[in-house]
Design a protein that fits this description.
five-stranded mixed sheet, 25 helices, elongated
Length: 573
């Protein structure tokens, strides 16, 4: 385990990575962290500040200055303010005299230089000399290298009494198998589920949240080095949802230490998930969306079903990341950063259109449940004021292909989820088989609602005709959260929510929208979901994508009501 963490720490970048895990490590070791890393503020050389007990049992102030990788002659003092020595000078001359909180000013100070690797020998004499010249009765120095940090991680957050060896084995297996994302994810999922069983008190609740957060970081860094981030992306979704589940009992209550700490962890976990998502998209996927069949050919398979499944998965990931970025833009008070986030959300919307245009398999899903990914993209178009003309064209062609495939017994969307059934679909070109394969649909009412909102009468009438003839047996349905969903939606339970069945599809498109709208207003439980009540609406979408739940119509009904229209400004919550 220690070798695993040594390698992990050495790979961490300085900003937003090594300094991101340090506060949680210190908190678990009993330190009181009073200053965390911040962007846009002068920190006088200090990345993290805490109060704790030293090895002699004396209470002191610990000031941490963080650098990436090995400490070299260049990173010690390269002639710029980015070197470690200038940071230490600023701590001595500015932070200690003026920035330490009044309640801690009488305590002795330990300045800790933190780096994920080792101190190279050619710089050790300079560092040792600096420590000696500037040490006194008030101030001392300490070296926290990768070996010490790895030991503290095992001693603090991941010690055997806290994380049993069986769980450590699952963790190690998930890291070792990052080149096989499905296997790595299965081991990580077991780790998450078993860690949640250890929650017996407020203290263990915080500890498990920290363990989940740091475990996701470790998996990401290893996956990044291996060049395959898929398992880390899925793991970060899972961790985000489970940490929210740990946090939600404290929402709406009088703030206490546990609630505040969990609130910090959930915000850092959201940032981690978005970091992983953007790393995956920017480095692996988005450079190829503008190339004809660029993503399709990268799937490396002879089965067209694999291409279809992967393409819709990619579309869902890009769209959901865009929705998270849009969420950040809405919450960001700084106008410059808000504008940057808004531009990124708009770029991701455009890149979704490029992906669709250059990979024609995205004009018809193979599974009815791929309505989840279509919902995510339509939501992104709505909240980011995307291209409605291209959206209308895409849905129109999807309806045409849907009608043709159903009427000719081709590869139409089916209700099957087993891979062997999907590969063989359609196993028979008979009406009896088609009735079984299309017994129900969440896809058709979704497409019908949006084609109606986009005034595509031709596509809407095609769907009406299909429902009246070839799909007369098909139950058009949608899923809505209810009062029981708060307990289950974040942890993957399938036993919650209600189904809106027998949705009418007739010449009057108003009937369809009114039926869905009425169900959204009358079904209790959605607005009480903690993620909705607190404005963290992308969490619900993350749960839907991760656990394969239909996107609740409450999130998109405002986009298809006659007033406001789909082209007007609106938000997802």
């Amino acid at each position: 385990m220690k070798l695993l963490f040594r390698s992990y720490l050495a790979s961490l970048r300085e900003r937003d990575e090594l300094d991101a895990i340090l506060p949680d490590l210190l908190s678990e070791l009993g330190f009181t962290v009073y200053s965390r890393p911040q962007r846009g503020t002068a920190q006088a050389g200090v990345d993290v500040a805490a109060v704790g007990i030293d090895e002699d049992g004396e209470r002191k102030v610990f000031l941490f200055s963080v650098k990436q990788g090995d400490l070299t002659r260049q990173s010690w003092n390269d002639g710029t303010v980015q070197g470690l020595q200038p940071s230490l000078d600023e701590i001595l001359n500015n932070y200690i005299p003026h920035r330490i909180p009044k309640r801690y000013q009488k305590l002795k100070v330990v300045i800790c230089v933190v780096f994920g690797g080792d101190m190279q020998e050619q710089v050790r004499s300079a560092v040792t000399g600096y420590f000696g010249r500037n040490s006194n009765r008030k101030v001392s120095f300490d070296e926290w290298n990768g070996d010490k940090l790895a030991g503290l991680l095992i001693e603090g957050v991941l010690r055997e009494k806290v994380m049993p060896k069986a769980l450590q084995f699952s963790f190690q297996k998930s890291v070792a198998m990052v080149d096989e994302p499905d296997i790595a994810y299965r081991h990580f999922m077991r780790l998450v589920k078993e860690l949640n069983k250890l929650v017996t008190s407020e203290r263990t609740r915080i500890r498990v949240a920290r363990q989940l957060y740091i475990a996701a970081w470790v998996l990401f860094v290893w996956a990044r080095d291996a060049g395959n981030i898929d398992s880390a992306y899925r793991a970060s979704e899972l961790v985000l949802l489970h940490i929210w589940n740990l946090f939600r009992p404290y929402i709406g209550r009088k703030p206490n230490k546990t609630g505040k700490e969990l609130n910090l962890i959930i915000n850092y976990t959201v940032q981690l998930h978005l970091t992983i998502a953007l790393e995956l998209l920017d480095k692996k996927l988005l450079p190829h969306v503008g190339t004809r069949d660029g993503i399709s050919t990268a799937v490396h398979t002879r089965a067209s079903v694999d291409v279809n499944i992967k393409l819709f998965d990619v579309l869902g990931r890009i769209a959901l990341t865009g929705l998270w970025v849009q969420w950040f833009a809405e919450r960001e008070p700084n106008l410059d950063r808000k504008a940057v986030a808004q531009r990124k959300a708009n770029e991701l919307t455009t890149q979704c259109f490029q992906l669709i245009e250059n990979n024609r398999a995205l004009f018809l899903p193979i599974q009815d449940q791929q309505a989840i990914e279509i919902s995510l993209f339509l939501l992104l178009v709505g909240v980011a004021n995307g291209n409605l003309h291209d959206t209308r064209s895409w849905l129109h062609q999807m309806v045409d292909r849907l009608a043709l495939s159903i009427r000719t017994h081709g590869r139409y969307p089916c209700i099957f989820s087993d891979y062997r059934d999907l590969v063989a679909h359609p196993r028979e070109r008979t009406e009896e088989y088609r009735r079984d394969a299309t017994a129900g649909s969440i896809l058709i009412p979704l497409i019908a609602a949006f084609t109606s909102a986009l005034n595509d009468r031709s596509a809407f009438e095609t769907l009406i005709s299909l429902k009246a003839k070839e799909l007369a047996h098909c139950t058009l349905q949608l899923w809505l959260p209810d009062k029981s969903s708060e307990e289950g939606i974040y942890v993957g339970s399938q036993d919650h929510g209600v189904a809106l069945c027998e949705i009418p599809l007739s010449d009057s498109n108003d009937t369809l929208i009114q039926t869905i709208d009425k169900a959204c207003r009358e079904t209790e439980g959605f607005v009480e979901l903690s993620a909705i009540a607190t404005g963290f609406w992308p969490l619900i979408l993350t749960a839907c994508r991760h656990y394969r739940l239909p996107v609740p119509p409450q999130l998109w009904i405002s986009l298809v009501r006659p007033e406001p229209s789909l082209g007007s400004e609106t938000t997802a919550s």
